[in-house]
Every structure is written in structure tokens, then in C-alpha cells.
Amino acid sequence: MEIGIFSTEAEASKAAAEIIIEHFAANPGATLGVATGSSPLGIYEVLRAAHAEGRFSLADSKAFALDEYVGIAPDHPEGYRNVLRAQLVGDDKTGLTEEGLHTPNGQNPEPVAAAAEYDASIREAGGIDLQILGIGSDGHIAFNEPGGSLVSRTHHEALAEQTVRDNARFFEGNLDLVPKSALTQGLGTIMEARRVVLTAFGENKKDAIKQLVEGPISAHWPGTILQMHPDATILVDEAAAADLELTDLYRARWEMKH
């Protein structure tokens, strides 16, 4: 893994966005894996600005979401399709079309079948060229919670109590309003992306980043499977990197390449 440590969230987000912009400049029409939550918002802001400047476009691309809540109303503002629409869809954003945005069907009464269909749709599209990721405070990526399979495919997942608590901020702070399960790309699915860019910010992510970068590969910290990815870039702020032991080496490697 390549590790970039930045003074601020904004600097790390800009670095992540520039990786994406550069990739799409060299590979127009590439397929982007998109994430929700707070971590990628700074990336999307930079991508929108780059689109306005004529440096970036998803007009000819497909984008596949990592996950979607099961049973959330189609018009709920925190439904992940709606979140991604607001961030990316339209000529006033990144040029991504409504048809180009693909999300799991959280309204399907057969979530297992919906998960299998979504996994198949990613493969039929030729896979993900570049996947944006965040990481939960308990080490989950997408909604792959601790204790699950490290080689899972897209599946129906129960959300851990910590995840529900973390996501309550998007539901007026009310735990009862947070959906309790989701359709999520599996770790095996995510690992098939040809390139991965993960961002994490704040002190509450330092344990997860410590394990992700320097811990053993373990289902207890699902994100650690990324240690086996051939092209993973991890971009964090100082607070998220606070417990890393080899920061001088990570900084030296980053400066040498960039």
C-alpha cells in the first residue's frame, strides 16, 4: 500500500481527487466505484470543480455504488442513490448520467437475489477500474462488518451497533431511524477493483488506520484485506495517522513518488 499523510482533510481529499482526475484523463470512460458517508465528500467537491474547469468528466462512464440500505424509501435523502445523485449526477456536477449511476436495489423484497444481481452487473460491466473507499471506526469497508468473510461477494449484511451509532448523524441523531441492514459489495468484490483509493480523517479513525496499515490481516478488522491489494492508496490526515509507527518512512516514500 502507498500511504499519504496530510496536514488537513482538504489536502488529502484533493490528492485523492487528482489521482482520479489523472486516471480518467488517461482512461476516458473508465468505470468508477463510488462511496458515500462523509469521507468522500471532499473528493466529490474537487471533482465537481474539475468538471466545471473542463478537466474531468464522467459523461461517458459508469459509476457503481458500494452499498445501499435495505428497505429505505426510494425518495429518502439518505438513500445512497439519492446521496450520489446530489453529489455527482448532471452536467452541473460531474456529467455522470442517471443511467450511468448503478446502485444496489434496496427495495427488492428478495435482498439475497438483489445482491447477486448487483454483483453480476459489476462483472458484466467489466469490473471497477478505480474504487473510492472510506473506512469505519471499527475497520469496516463498504458495509463489510467485523467477523465476516474476507472473500465475500455482494451480499445482504446486518449492520453492527457501532455502524448504526456512527450513521445516526445522518438520521437526526436518532438510532431508531437508521436502517439495520444493507446490500453491500463484498470484500472479494472490492478486491477485484483494479485500483483502490481510500481516505480517512479524524481521531476516531486512528485505530482503524493503525490496523489497516500496520496490523495483521484479520476479519476482526475487515479493511486489513487491502494489504493484499496490488494497487491501494491510503490518504489520511494527521489525526487519523496518529497511531502509525512508520510515519517517517511513509512520508519519504510518498515524497519520492510525488
From TrEMBL:
Domain Glucosamine/galactosamine-6-phosphate isomerase: 11-228
A UniProt-annotated Pfam family: Glucosamine_iso
Any one GO MF annotation of this record: identical protein binding
The keyword Hydrolase appears for this protein: yes
Organism domain of life: Bacteria
Coiled-coil residue spans: none
Record keywords: Carbohydrate metabolism, Hydrolase
GO BP: carbohydrate metabolic process; glucosamine catabolic process; N-acetylglucosamine catabolic process; N-acetylneuraminate catabolic process
Listed GO CC annotations: cytoplasm
Name recorded for this polypeptide: Glucosamine-6-phosphate deaminase
